[in-house]
TrEMBL record:
GO CC annotations, alphabetized: nucleus
Gene Ontology BP annotations: immune system process; positive regulation of DNA-templated transcription; regulation of transcription by RNA polymerase II
Ranges of biased composition (kind: Polar residues): 113-126
Species of provenance: Ornithorhynchus anatinus (Duckbill platypus)
IRF tryptophan pentad repeat domain sequence ranges: 5-110
This protein's name: Interferon regulatory factor 3
A single GO molecular function term of this UniProt record: RNA polymerase II cis-regulatory region sequence-specific DNA binding
Any Pfam family matching the protein: IRF-3
Region Disordered: start-end pairs: 111-135
Length: 408
């Protein structure tokens, strides 16, 4: 049985009183406010000293054993932030995007909450790390996603680890594309009725009703149209759901996003931030190989000039119109019975990273501006070179099998 895990508040006060960690200090005479360095691990000027507090808490809480466990600064920071996500503490100033001195100012509120110490194994997070998790802001969730994504991609060196991870290569980008998660949003007559974020390694299947045995496919069932107040429209939507059986399949190969309809319901697709007639569009086929909706080379070819400041944002958001011809000048997308929006999140993250690294575009409406942790110091040449290498590798490799994965 390990030693009891220390309580974050008294432990943190002790660290502040000692004053041994660079950048970690009280900011007022009453010792209620303190600053914590908040530098992203992929900044070129990142050093071990920038993560000493997070590392010290990981050691004290038993989550990290020096010289035994792998160094994971992004996880240390996430666990430290989680430990501070409690009553009696709050962030009063967030300067994490400051290019010269990224940091946050916290404040102790009221009396110390001593609570009860809990045991913690070296490889698990205790309840303290998990408390109030459902109250995290979207910024915090985005920060965690980016930390994990960038740590895996390793576009530039992490702060002097014992074993330096190899840089990302074209095959890693292809794997990232294949394993992408999808954010799926369903609209009935322009009204959002569902939204889910789905991991779909075996492919995504949009169905009218959930299958009891979907196999390796990840299913998204269209909601019951009973949520609609217009009974006539609800009846039409129900007919679309019935005709969709056995479903619309969407999957990724190392180079393409493809779709195939398998029921009587005709499916039309388009691409763009919003579905428009002048954007790429077409009909989803019933053939075994399905229809190619987007090629990764197109994303790369749009991203490189975008990163260099001279091109438009990549258009990778997919739209599906079920049961009705689309596009239709006389009937805009928000008047269609059933529209399904699908965002491949791996491409969205690459896009956001590029924007944070310095690219900008007036038509970049789909970028989430709330991304945490400034990536402004991430060198653009690294990302551009990576994408160029990937594009070249796709030219020399044999085409991927376009068919639905065998597991389906």
């Amino acid at each position: 049985m390990g030693a009891p895990k220390p309580l974050i508040v008294p432990w943190l006060r002790d660290q502040l009183d000692r004053g041994l960690l660079d950048g970690v200090a009280w900011t007022d005479a009453t010792r209620t406010r303190f600053r914590v360095p908040w530098k992203h691990g992929l900044r070129q000027d990142a050093h071990d000293e920038d993560f000493r507090l997070f590392e010290a808490w990981a050691v004290a809480s038993g989550a990290y054993r020096p010289n035994i466990d792998q160094r994971t600064p992004s996880i240390w920071k996430r666990n430290f932030r989680s430990a501070l996500n409690r009553k009696g503490l709050r962030v009063v100033q967030d300067h994490s995007r400051d290019a010269q001195d990224p940091h946050k100012i916290y404040e102790f509120l009221g009396s110390e909450d001593n609570g009860t110490a809990v045991n913690s194994s070296a490889n698990s997070s205790g309840p303290e790390e998990l408390q109030d998790a459902t109250g995290w802001s979207q910024d915090t969730i985005q920060e965690d996603i980016l930390d994990e994504f960038l740590g895996n991609l390793a576009l530039s060196p992490a702060p002097v680890p014992r074993e330096t991870a190899p840089p990302a290569d074209a095959h890693q980008v292809a794997q990232l594309f294949v394993e992408t998660e999808f954010e799926v949003t369903v609209f009935y007559r322009g009204t959002q009725v569902a939204q889910e974020r789905l991991r779909a390694p075996g492919g995504l299947q949009v169905v009218g009703r959930r299958d009891q045995n979907p196999g390796a496919v990840t299913e998204l069932a269209l909601p019951d149209p009973g949520v609609l107040s217009d009974r006539k429209v609800a009846g039409y939507v129900q007919r679309v759901r019935d005709s969709l059986v056995p479903g619309l399949h969407l999957w990724a190969t190392p180079t393409e996003l493809r779709a195939r309809r398998r029921g009587h319901c005709h499916v039309y697709w388009g691409r763009g931030v919003l579905p428009q007639e002048d954007h790429p569009h077409g009909v989803v086929t019933k053939e075994d190989g399905g229809s190619c909706l987007y090629h990764i080379n197109e994303f790369v070819q749009d991203m490189i000039p975008f990163l260099n400041g001279g091109g438009r944002s990549p258009q990778y958001t997919l739209w599906f119109c079920l049961g009705e011809v689309w596009p239709n000048r006389d009937l805009p997308w928000n008047k269609k019975l059933v529209m399904v929006k699908v965002v491949p999140l791996s491409l969205q993250l690459l896009h956001n990273i590029g924007r944070d690294a310095g690219a900008s575009s007036l038509d970049d409406r789909e970028v989430d501006l709330r991304i945490s942790d400034s990536l402004g110091s991430l060198p653009l040449p690294d990302l551009i070179t990576l994408l160029q290498d990937f594009c070249e590798s796709m030219e020399t490799e044999s085409p991927a099998d376009p068919r639905v994965p065998a597991s389906q």
